[in-house]
Specification:
It is built from 13 helices and no strands. It has 326 residues and is mostly helical. It has one domain: A middle domain of Talin 1. Helix 1 runs antiparallel to helix 2 and helix 3 packs parallel to helix 12.
Length: 326
């Protein structure tokens, strides 16, 4: 599992630079590139881990790994905020598409929460909420793209705002080479998910810990390491909008893991087999995302604002609560 973590860290640095270049070359902007390309690619280990857990019949592990990754990755953004010395990261990376993605993320988690308390009805073994999650995710991407192309409002530009502008230098290679390298790195990153999932399920079996706890605190953090690496790398190269959108967009994509788990799990609806820890994690991620969105709206100028402090405190309290749940 530790070796897989090292692979994720190494691949994540290069992946960030490739996606930053693709955002400029393809003209899609850092916000959309971070949400779709970087966010999805770095989420692949978590997706594979969730699928393996669901295929093994451990719904608690599958859901907790997916949602636990969202909580961990949001915390990584607060850590990246600490590494950006100039001003508050959410202030500098103000972006309408990122705000849209935050609202979509909250809506998606709300659907999952509602499904856990809904009638246990399935069609061909799939809960209706699964179809709704996919549709809402695609609608959210369309809204984010529309918000970038024709925004109805704009964040106020300040001296500390870093505008998403194409880098003329880029990486000095062709688009075909960049796309091929992106695909290769995505495969490498995704392949580690199987190793992490197998190790995580073994830990649960050998130690007697619940799969839900292992998924929430161990595998979700390890499979989320690419996000930590990519967000810090993006901040270091000045791609601040990419950094924020990687986390928010990746989190939005991660909610779809629950939909995939519902399709994979054959014992019934994953929403109704999820345990108390999984439901607690969902509620925690809603609050953490709301604090992040509030930070993007407030746009404090001090180094780390109330949002960063709040996210770190919420995650710490969440971990303590998960352990207390036994």
């Amino acid at each position: 599992m530790l070796v897989s973590g090292g692979v994720l860290v190494t691949a994540g640095v290069r992946l960030t630079k490739v996606v930053d270049a693709l955002a400029d070359r393809l003209g899609i902007g850092e916000a959309l590139a971070g949400a779709v390309l970087l966010g999805a690619a770095t989420s692949l280990p978590g997706l594979v881990t969730t699928v393996v857990g669901a295929a093994s019949g451990d719904a608690g592990f599958a859901v907790s790994n997916a949602v636990g990754g969202i909580a961990a990755q949001t915390t990584f953004l607060a850590i990246a905020d600490l590494s950006y010395r100039r001003t508050n990261l959410e202030h500098a990376a103000a972006s309408v598409p990122n705000m849209v993605q935050a609202l979509v993320l909250t809506s998606l988690i709300g659907v999952v929460l509602a499904a856990t308390g809904s009638p246990d009805v399935t069609v061909l073994g799939i809960h209706p909420a699964t179809v709704l999650l996919v549709g809402l995710y695609l609608y959210g991407l369309a809204q984010a793209r529309r918000a970038r192309q024709a925004p109805m409002w704009q964040p106020e530009q300040t001296d500390d705002t870093v505008v998403d502008e194409p880098d003329e230098d880029g990486l000095g290679v062709s688009n075909r080479r960049l796309i091929a390298e992106f695909g290769f790195l995505a495969i490498v990153v995704g392949g580690t998910g199987w190793v992490v999932a197998t190790a995580g399920l073994s830990i649960a079996a050998d130690t007697g810990l619940s799969g839900s706890l292992v998924g929430a605190l161990f595998t979700s953090v390890i499979t989320s390491l690419p996000e930590l690496v990519t967000v810090v790398t993006a901040v270091r190269i000045g791609a601040l909008t990419l950094a924020v959108s990687d986390i928010i967009g990746g989190n939005t994509f991660d909610v779809l893991f629950v939909a995939v788990a519902d399709v994979t799990l054959r014992e019934g609806s994953v929403y109704h087999l999820a345990d108390t820890r999984a439901v607690f994690l969902m509620a925690l991620t809603v609050v953490m995302t709301a604090v992040l969105a509030a930070g993007m709206l407030e746009r404090e100028e001090r180094h780390i604002g109330f949002d960063g402090i709040g996210i770190l405190a919420l995650y710490a309290l969440g971990v303590a609560s998960l352990i207390t749940l036994g």
